Predict the 3D structure of the following.
Amino acid sequence: MISRERPLIIITGGTGQIGFELVRALSPLGEVLAPRRAELDLTRPAQMRAYLRERRPSLIVNAAAYTAVDRAETEPDLCYTINAEAPGVLAEEARRADAALLHYSTDYVFDGRKRTPYIESDSPSPLNVYGASKLAGERAIEAAGGTWLVLRTSWVFGARRGNFVRTIRRLARDARPIRVVMDQSGTPTWSRSVAIATAELLARSRDQRWSELLRSHAGVYHLTSAESTTWLEFARAILARDPARHEHCYTSLDPITSREFSAAAERPAYSVLSSERARTTFGLRLPPWEAQLSALFADGDFN
């Protein structure tokens, strides 16, 4: 048996946008391990089970995902392995160890036909392989029957990895037009805000009894920025706030339709999530997306 003074938290996807921020945000709550893929490969269930059974964490936080939305249309098996099957394995092992599982999902589980913010009880109807795989992951976790909580977020941006903010800043340095979709609405959300809110949620448990906390509040919650926007307006705000504006060479910012963009995967036209349930249950409230974008640029930790 392993003896520890502090509870063990295992974070998957620790080098990703949310995972990287989680490692820092959750460290005050316990001993944090963020295994690399060579140690914990979400495409290898037997390896996953062996790793978790050896370490017996108190909490598993699954921030790993296959997020290449367009490529998923031609790699559905790999997408489902990582986004649907692996979360089920994590949930089964959490139950076996009497641990808790916290998992992140997406606004893309919805089809975008509503025109008011989606709430947790709305029926999912994903339009693409990525969204369908994430919904399957949610259901696999629930079916495992352990102690779990799912946080759906959306349009995640940050200083790390590929995301919309980094893409727009890169395109701004080319002497050509930037073409951005104008007819899709959502809620941009800073990865650090998600991590901090997660830490605040977990800190509600006295003595790090996360199984008790999550068992009493099990279910799906939406956690996104306040207020919504379009990709076009988000791009406009990025360009206006970019601290490296002196390096911009782009000639124009041109609105286009989703049809003109012609991506491999269909996206919901409206995927705004209401975070009211997370606010009333846990007291979690993320700032408006514009404030979060300004905070990201003020931080300056791009790499």
Observations:
- Residues 150 and 220 are 5 Å apart (CA to CA).
- Residues 76-96 form the longest helix (21 residues).
- The chain has eleven helices and twelve strands.
- The longest strand covers residues 100-106.
